[in-house]
Design a protein that fits this description.
The chain is 29% helix and 18% strand. By secondary structure, it is an alpha+beta fold.
Length: 66
């Protein structure tokens, strides 16, 4: 363990890709009724239970900007 690290602390970055911001509203019979906010809340709760810090973001970008 490196100096300054706390055992059990892990940083997690979750990146939601294109159109996942539409979860719960776009074709709920196909994709389910859970929204991205619902999923983010569940992930935050699980991370907190494990003592992890989690950061989440969503992007509809499908390519590389030059």
């Amino acid at each position: 363990m490196a100096t300054g690290e706390t055992r059990g602390m892990v940083d997690v970055l979750v990146i939601f890709g294109p159109n996942l911001n539409m979860l719960g509203t776009r074709e709920p019979k196909t994709y389910g009724a859970e929204s991205m906010a619902d999923i983010m809340g569940a992930l935050s709760d699980q991370a907190a239970d494990l003592g992890w810090r989690v950061e989440m973001m969503q992007s509809n970008e499908e390519g590389v900007r030059v």
